[in-house]
From TrEMBL:
GO CC terms, sorted: cytosol
Keywords carried by this UniProt record: Coiled coil, Cytoplasm, Initiation factor, Protein biosynthesis
Organism encoding this protein: Micrurus carvalhoi
GO MF annotation: an example: translation initiation factor activity
Family: Belongs to the eIF-2B alpha/beta/delta subunits family.
Principal location listed in the UniProt entry: cytoplasm
Protein name (database record): Translation initiation factor eIF2B subunit delta
Transmembrane segments: none
Known partners and oligomeric status: Component of the translation initiation factor 2B (eIF2B) complex which is a heterodecamer of two sets of five different subunits: alpha, beta, gamma, delta and epsilon. Subunits alpha, beta and delta comprise a regulatory subcomplex and subunits epsilon and gamma comprise a catalytic subcomplex. Within the complex, the hexameric regulatory complex resides at the center, with the two heterodimeric catalytic subcomplexes bound on opposite sides.
Database matches in InterPro entries: IF-2B-related, NagB/RpiA_transferase-like
Length: 167
C-alpha cells in the first residue's frame, strides 16, 4: 500500500521562509512518529485530510476537529479501575500529537483543545459514563456554536458596519 504524497505548495516566499514548508517529495509519514497506542480511525482520516489540504481554513479545520472529537468521545469506553476524566484526557494526547504532525494546529484549534481538556478534567468522578459523554457532546456543540459560528457572525456584522460605499 502506498503512502500518499504531500501536495507541493510551490516556491518559498521570503516573508514566510522561516516556517515549515510542505513538499510533494516527502512522504506523509516520513518524519512522522506513529504513537504506540492505537489512533482512532476518524483521527487518522482527519490527519490525512489536513495534510493533503482537503480541509482548509482555521474555522473549517477547528469544526472538523470538534466533529472528530465528538466521534472519539462517542466510541470511548472507560477502562476498569480508571476515571473517565483522567483516562480520556490521556487518550486524546496521542491523537493531538498525530494531528499536529500532519499539520500544525491553528490558534482556534489550540483553544478548542484547551477548552475540551478543561471540560473533561472538570467532570465529577461520580458521574455515569453515558451522562458524561452526553454532557461533553453538548459542550462541544455549544462551543462550536458560540465560539465559532456566532463569533464569525459578529465579526461579519461589525465589518459590514465599518465598510462604506466607495471604500
Amino acid at each position: 500500500q502506498q503512502v500518499p504524497m504531500r501536495p507541493d505548495y510551490g516556491a518559498k516566499v521570503s516573508l514566510v521562509s522561516h516556517l515549515h514548508q510542505y513538499s510533494r517529495k516527502e512522504l506523509l509519514t516520513q518524519q512522522m512518529s506513529i504513537p504506540v497506542s492505537t489512533i482512532h480511525p476518524a483521527v487518522v482520516r482527519l490527519g490525512l485530510q489536513y495534510s493533503q489540504g482537503i480541509i482548509n481554513g482555521s474555522n473549517a479545520r477547528c469544526i472538523a476537529l470538534l466533529k472528530v472529537f465528538k466521534q472519539v468521545i462517542r466510541d470511548y469506553t472507560t477502562p476498569a479501575n480508571e476515571e473517565l476524566s483522567r483516562d480520556l484526557v490521556n487518550k486524546l494526547k496521542p491523537y493531538i500529537s498525530f494531528l499536529t504532525q500532519c499539520r500544525p494546529l491553528s490558534a482556534s484549534m489550540g483553544n478548542a483543545i484547551k477548552f475540551l481538556k478543561k471540560e473533561i478534567s472538570s467532570l465529577p468522578g461520580t458521574i455515569r459514563e453515558e451522562k458524561a459523554k452526553e454532557q461533553l457532546q453538548e459542550t462541544i456543540d455549544k462551543y462550536e456554536r458560540e465560539k465559532i459560528f456566532l463569533a464569525a457572525e459578529a465579526i461579519s456584522k461589525f465589518a459590514f458596519e465599518k465598510i462604506n460605499d466607495g471604500d
